[in-house]
Amino acid sequence: MAEKLDRSIGWSRLPTPLAIPVLIGLRQQLRAHNLYDTGRGAGDKPPYDAELVGDLTARSLNGTHNDLDHPLMGSLGSRFGRNVPLAHTYPEEDERLLDPNPRLISRKLLVREGFQPATTLNLLAAAWIQFEVHDWFSHGTDLSHQWEIPLDDDDPWPNRSRRSKRPAGKHVMRIERTPPDPSPDSQGPPTFVTRDTHWWDSSQIYGGAPNLEFAKALRLGRRGQLRIDDLGLPPEDAEQTLDLNGTAGAFWVGLAILHSLFMREHNAICERLAAEYPHMSDQQLYDKARLVNCALMAKIHTVDWTPAVIAHPTTVVALRANWFGVLGERFRKYFGRITKDEVLQGIPGSPTNQHGVPYSLTEEFVAVYRMHPLIPDHFVFRSVADNKLIAEHELPDLTVRHVRDRLNELKMDDIFYSFGRAYPGAINLHNFPRHLQYFKRYDDSVVDLAAIDILRARERGVPRYNEFRRLLRLKPASSFEELTDNPQWAAELRRIYGDVERVDLMIGLYAEPKPPGFGFSDTAFRIFILMASRRLESDRFFTRDYRPEIYTPAGMDWIDSNTMRTVLLRHFPSLEPALRGVKNPFAPWARVDRR
C-alpha cells in the first residue's frame, strides 16, 4: 500500500499524518528487499589484538565485538554490503565502464559556471557531512593499478601522460583504482572492504586501527581526556602519525573546527563524569565519554543536521521520530521509556535488529553521499563581535597544509560565525567546486574529484541511474526531459549520454527535481530511509546497550540534554547573538552588528 500511494501520488504531496505511515511502509519494503550480504573472505578481518578490543562495555578501536554473537560484524576490513541484488553489481567491461568519459562529464556537466547557493543551509552543514563521512567509510586507493582516462586535445589538464595501451600517443588522466578485496570469492561480483569500521563510532576523532599510534598520542593520560593544543587541534606530534596521503589529507578548516568542537566536548563530558563518579579510572572515563560523545553526534545528525538538509515538514517529523519515536521527546522526558517499540519511542533503546542481514554500510550508501557541490570555492571570514570583514580565502588556502596558518590568523569563534552565516552550494549539475576539479593533494599530485566520483560508482558496480531506480521499485525516466525539469540540462545530458539508460547515478541525482525543502534528491532519499535507521538499529550501543548501566546515568542525561546549539554555546559562548532566534544551527545564522 505504501509503495502504491507513493507511486500514484508521491509521499511528499501527502499531508504529514498520512505521509508518515507511507514512509514507515517504504522503510519496511526497503528492509525486506534492499539489504544484501556480500559475505566475508578469510582475510576480511582486522588483526586481533586485545588492546584494540578492551572492555566489551566500550567501543573497540577496530570495530569488533559490537555484535557479541558475531564479533567481526562491521569491523575494520569487513566488506561493504549492497542495497541492490548482487547480480546487478557486476562492473561493466573496461571500455564500456569508461563511457561516457568521466573527465568529459566533469567538464561538460559538473563544472561550476557560477555559484548556486543552498540558501536554507549554512556552511557548517557542508562541513558536518564530510566530518561524518570520515567516520563512516573509506575504501583507500590502489597506487599500483590505475585507470587511464583519455583526454580530449583541448583539455587543459596539467598532468597529461602517455597512454600505456593502444592507441599509442593518446594523452590520459590517471586515477588510482579501488583496492580489491584481499580475500575475494571465486564466484560472484567483485567485493570491496572498508578501511574504517562500519559503525557510527566517531573514529574520525578518536582514531583506531590500523593507526593505533594516533589514538594513543591523542590521550592525555588522566581523567579520560584528550590532548588539545593552543589552536584547538590534536598536538602536532599526534598529527605526525597520520598518513596525509590518505583520508587524513582531506583535512581542511571546516573539518578542523568540528574536530576541535567535539574534542572539547569529550573533555567536558569527562569532567562531568569524573565529578559524578570519582572512582572511575582514566580508561573508564575515556570509554564512557566516547560513548556519550558518539551518541550525541548521532543525535545531532538525526535531529539537527538531517532535518535542515531535507526540511520537508514530513521528514522533519519523521527524523525526530527516528530518535524519539512518534510519542515524542516530551513524552520520553516525563514518562521514560515504557515500550521497546522503535516506532513509538525511537530507535535508541529499542532491541538490536539486523533484519536478517549482517550489518555493514553499502556501496550504494557511499554513492548517494557524494555531495561535493556543497563546498564553495571562495570563503569570507567575519568577526562574530561586529561582522567586520577579517579575511577572504580560496579553498586551497584552507586545506591540510594551511589549517594551522588559518587558525593562527583567525579565531575559532569567528570561523564558526563565518560558516554559520555563509551558504553552501546546492547539490546540482554545474555546481562542482572548481578547486576540487583541480585538487592538489598533500603529495602535490593533482586529481579531478568530479571525474573520480563518477568513476568510483562505476568501478564498484553501482547501477546507473535508471537501473538504480528500478531496483528500488521507482519509475525510471523514459526521457531526458522526464529525468530533469531543466530544459538546458536535458539537452546537455542528451549530448553527453545519447541514451537515458546510460546516465550515471550521481548525474541523475544532481539533475532530478527535488521534493520541497530537500537539499538532495528523492532517489537518494530512498537509500537514506533505509540506512539512516539501520546504522542506529544494528548497533548495540544505540539499542540494547543504550542504557544507564552502560553509559552511566550522567552520560544518558548529557545526551538527552544537549543539541548542536548547546555544544556550540558551551565552548564558544560568543556565538549566542548569532544563534539567537535560529531554530536549527545548520540553517543560516543571524548577522551580528556592532555591540
Describe the protein's topology.
Elements: H1 2-8, H2 16-33, H3 50-53, H4 94-97, H5 102-110, H6 123-136, E1 142-150, E2 161-162, E3 171-177, H7 203-206, H8 212-217, H9 236-239, H10 253-276, H11 282-309, H12 313-324, H13 328-335, H14 342-345, H15 363-368, E4 378-382, E5 389-394, H16 403-409, H17 412-421, H18 434-437, E6 439-440, E7 446-447, H19 449-459, H20 465-471, H21 480-483, H22 487-497, H23 505-511, H24 522-537, H25 548-551, H26 553-561, H27 564-571, H28 576-579
Antiparallel strand pairs: 1-3, 2-3, 4-5, 6-7
Helix pairs in contact: 1-2, 2-12, 2-24, 5-19, 5-22, 6-10, 10-11, 11-12, 11-26
How many domains make up the 3D coordinates? Answer: 1
- Report helical residue fraction: 40-55%
The CATH superfamily appears as: Haem peroxidase domain superfamily, animal type
Proper CATH architecture: Orthogonal Bundle
Number of strands: 7
Region (Disordered): 148-194
GO molecular function, one term: heme binding
Biased composition (Basic residues): 160-172
Keywords: Dioxygenase, Fatty acid biosynthesis, Fatty acid metabolism, Heme, Iron, Lipid biosynthesis, Lipid metabolism, Metal-binding, Oxidoreductase, Oxylipin biosynthesis, Peroxidase, Plant defense
